[in-house]
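hey can u run this one w/ manganese (II) ion bound, need the structure tokens asap thx
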Amino acid sequence: MSLLLSLIIPTYNESENISPLIIQLTSLLDRTLEQKYEIIIVDDDSPDLTWKIAQDLSDQYPQLKVIRRQGEKGLSTAVMKGWEKAQGEILGVIDADLQHPPESLLQLWSEIEKGADLAVASRHVEGGGVSDWSLLRRFLSRGAQTLGLIILPGVIGRVSDPMSGFFLVRRRCLANSTLNPLGYKILIEVLAKGKIGWISEVGYVFQERQEGQSKVTKQQYIDYIRHLVRLRLSLWRFERFIRFGVVGLSGVFVDMAFLYLLSDSSTLGLPLTRSKIIAAELAIINNFLWNDSWTFRDIAQTQPGKRRKIKRFIKFNLICLAGLILNVLFLNIFYNIFGLNRYVANLGAIAIVTIWNYWLNLKLSWRSTDLDSESGK
Ligand code: GDD
Ligand code: MN
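ok here u go:
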């Protein structure tokens, strides 16, 4: 019998919560899905023997399976382990401490039945909220979300509660994705790596924990930032950025060579800023030709013809010219304010502007029409 739902519950020291949770969940799911579901508890060898209690429970509840991990620890890797073993078409995750109300699962399920690829329980939509959270905790939670919106706007911005640890997702949307989340935030990994079209959100109130302790430590906040940066780099398809950097480097040589040929006292000795502008424009032309035929070759090939190439060049030039203004600005700040040597100041300015140029050119000049491409995230 094929299973419809595989619900993963990561547990660590949840001995008081596990029985009441399983009783509630199985009674809800038996009514909705009959036997076509499984609940997989993934316990990291809890000292309070949560895994033992769960194993005993599985004698009573045939849909319940228990994985006891030894020597491994971590919420998101526990969930990945459960998903690996899961048989269901729909993969889900819920916390064990009843802070995620089991009854909201039915609302999530009905969103999936309507056709959603991902159904997320959210604290930040109608009907959602948190019970009595301190101002600090609200600030930290919203602060983390804002940081995520800055680093991964196209991912974090897709849902109102990207920190939610309570959701259902279609297995096929994750089929070709290698998920390797860090810390607590699985949903972010699913949004970034999965092929997720229709997203549905259900409001729920995050209850206060009655039994046991939250396992959240400072480490989770550090892991969260590391996770964001790692996703940012992976989504940037690093090899393309490397190529852009190599082309940028060739542009530096063109830039420097012409800066020397034009401004150095032993050559033409023209004024610095004028020489800089000419040198930079020649470097821009050099970089465009290499980027169009190498870095973004795959995208440029989908936009054939001279006219479109000129359009890309104009966009590239405008972006780089804006970058040039930034470049001159930083060059003068580093040279006149920080008193750096002119060539060190120039290198610093170029480094900052390279990231600016890459990001905007990926978004605008070589904007590919394919929605899934890295420029959409
Ligand atoms: N297997 C395993 N290993 N489970 C763990 C581990 C671990 O190292 N650490 C925590 N868990 C389990 C807990 O037993 C609980 O079932 C669940 O993961 C959540 O842990 P809590 O420590 O209760 O997290 P929280 O309540 O502070 O945060 C939760 O809610 C946030 C808001 O939705 C988590 O779901 C967060 O991901 C979520 O952002
Ligand atoms: Mn909790």
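The two ends are 38 Å apart (CA to CA). anyway lmk if its weird
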